Amino acid sequence: MNNAEALDILRGAILVAVKLSAPVLILSMVIGILISILQAATQIHEQTLTFVPKLVAIVVVFLLTGSWMLTTLQEYTVEIFSRM
Length: 84
Hints:
single chain; mainly alpha; 2 helices
């Protein structure tokens, strides 16, 4: 394995990590912004008000996209082992 192949594997790993984490991070960020706007408007600053909706949304995202995430990881793993 030369440097170009190692960099290609690393680049692929980073892209897979970004692709898998994007739905969870984007949804968590959107919910956080919406709850922050709600807290600013109502002046209710309870920590559980931000934590619980994000946790529920993240669990729902994992339930909806879990099979896609697993398939993506399996495909990348097969691709790495087929290079050797």
